[in-house]
Amino acid sequence: MTVRIASPDLAPARALFPALQATADGGMAPIFLDNPGGTQVPEPVLAAMRDSLVGANANTGGAFGTSQRSDAALVAARAALADLLNAVPDEIVFGANMTTLTFAISRGIAHLLQPGDEIVTTVLDHDANVAPWLAIARERGATVRVVDIRTPDCTLDMDQLADLLTPRTRLLAIGYASNATGTINDIPTAVRLAHDVGAWVYVDAVQYAPHGSIDVRALDCDFLACSAYKFFGPHVGVLYGKAERLAEVPAYKVRPQQDESPWRHETGTLNHEGIVGAAAAVDYLATLGSFDPSATIVAPTRRAQIGAAMAAIRAHEMALFDRLLTGVERLPGVRVWGITDRARFAQRGPTLAFTWDAFSPRETAALLGRHGINAWDGDYYATNLMERLGLAPDGAVRLGLAHYNTAAEVDKTLAVLASVP
């Protein structure tokens, strides 16, 4: 695959999102900067879900056409998500969301732990990749050790990570990218360090998946979880697990489903239309490279197309982020939390957290909301991080860009913020 990216134009993609064409209260077109909490959904995803409900709305394993179409759709969806992550279909497990999947798989992992074993988590992580491990540690008499951050750039202390990993470590739980500060962690190094002491690695890729290409083979992680509603799909969770890891971990299921298939970790009847929608979101992502007239793309497979698209997304989003960060930094009394050095942008994503003297985070989000701009405030479940930064309980304002955002939207947001006396 050959990709040349320079100033991609992803504006045509906006036309595929009905929510972007709607009007908010007061007749204003909404500006979605709440993307780290959940992205909007394009028409191809909505159409796929409708088709599933109309033509394949049956449970699996039946001897009739509707059920067989449902079976085929799930097979196709596993293949699509495998392409997204560079896995194989038998390594894909579906569930309600990343949080639910993590609690479920952690319950099985708990039975492999002994008193005195150790689990390592990080200050930077969303609580969905912290609380499950705290719970099983309490149950099994294990110890949880926490990797701190370096301030003020909110990056993980990799030296401390190396020190905390010992022969007693059984699992490292680490995020690919921070949902608060946008920090992108050095996952390949973290995986190598953990594997050197015989530990498994569980990666939360929820915040990275909409912004960058994921290759579980290259990462060599043991598990990786993400949620489709963060990459333009419906509320469905996706878990990758190495085949041997999925086989080792006990599954909690009803007795008729206690087989040896890799997806035995899926419980009950799944959200079939949601899974079909997740697959359609992958197909949508694969088209985005073609929206870039400046790119030379030779991408014969869906996996290669996704790689080209993610390169276009990255270039577009980070150009917008530079514009957003520049404007926010000019506001009096503002503090940005995370990497601000443009030379280090490779270590961060397009998510910005800030506090300022003019308003509390909640008041700032309300100000933006009155102008049709969606922004989050609080801790967004980055509980340990906000406590570590001294920002609890109010947290910070969070603005997160997606590929469908525009320079005009960034400029309007900055103008609203700058209008405060």
Account of the protein in words:
This protein has 421 residues and is an alpha/beta fold. It folds into 2 domains: 11-41 and 301-418, Aspartate Aminotransferase, domain 1, CATH 3.90.1150; 47-282, Type I PLP-dependent aspartate aminotransferase-like (Major domain) (Aspartate Aminotransferase, domain 2), CATH 3.40.640. It is 39% helix and 15% strand. The protein has helices at 11-14, 18-21, 43-55, 65-85, 98-110, 131-140, 158-164, 187-196, 216-219, 243-248, 272-287, 302-329, 361-370, 383-388, 407-418; strands at residues 31-32, 92-95, 118-122, 143-147, 149-150, 155-156, 169-175, 200-204, 223-227, 237-241, 334-337, 351-356, 373-374, 376-378, 396-400. The strands form 4 sheets. Strands 2-10-9-8-7-3-4 form a 7-stranded mixed β-sheet, with helices on both faces. A 4-stranded antiparallel β-sheet has the order 11-12-15-14, covered by helices on one side. The chain has a two-stranded parallel sheet with strand order 1-13. A hairpin with a 4-residue loop joins strand 5 (149-150) and strand 6 (155-156). The longest helix is centred in the C-terminal third of the chain and has 28 residues, at 302-329. Residues 1-7 have low confidence and may be disordered.
